[in-house]
Amino acid sequence: MDTPTSAAPDEKTPPAESALATQLSKSETQEKSKTSGSLEVSAERISSSVARLTSNSIDELQGLVSELQKMQEFLKSEVNNVQRQIDSALAGINIIVETISPWKSIAGAGSQTHSSGTRNVRAGGPAANIEQRMRVG
């Protein structure tokens, strides 16, 4: 009697153990798939976040490059304007110098005649009054 009853539970035990082992392996597989699934979801989220942030950064950088190019064009045009104004001022100065240079040579020739030692004194004015007082006094 012991043999049949003990044999019966022994025969039933391996299927129960195998069922338990199967259930454990399934739960481990599910756990691994959940973990790997959540890792994949996290990786996808991170990847999409990085892509979104880099695209925003790239768009902002392209905007800055565009603004800098506009600023560079503006500065070049301002440099050209200032250069034209300088050239115009120099041309005006050259005209003035060319106009004054004959007068300077005339004035230089006139001052050479007065450098003989005589003083050119106006007939009147404060100096004449002082000289007259000294003669009278």
Mean pLDDT: 75
Which of globular, elongated, flat, extended, rod-shaped describes the shape? rod-shaped
Helical percentage: over 70%
Radius of gyration: 55 Å
- Largest beta sheet, briefly? none
* Topology order in helix (H) and strand (E) letters: HH
Q: Give the helix tally.
A: 2
What is the count of β-strands?
0
Uncertain ranges: 6-12
Alpha-beta content class? mainly alpha
Bin the strand percentage. under 5%
**CA-to-CA gap between the ends?**
175 Å
Keywords: Coiled coil
Structure description:
The protein contains two helices and no strands. With 137 residues, it is mostly helical. The model is unreliable at 6-12 (pLDDT under 50). It is rod-shaped. The N and C termini lie far apart (175 Å). It has helices at residues 2-114, 125-136. Keywords: Coiled coil.
For this entry, give a set of tags.
mainly alpha; 2 helices; coiled coil
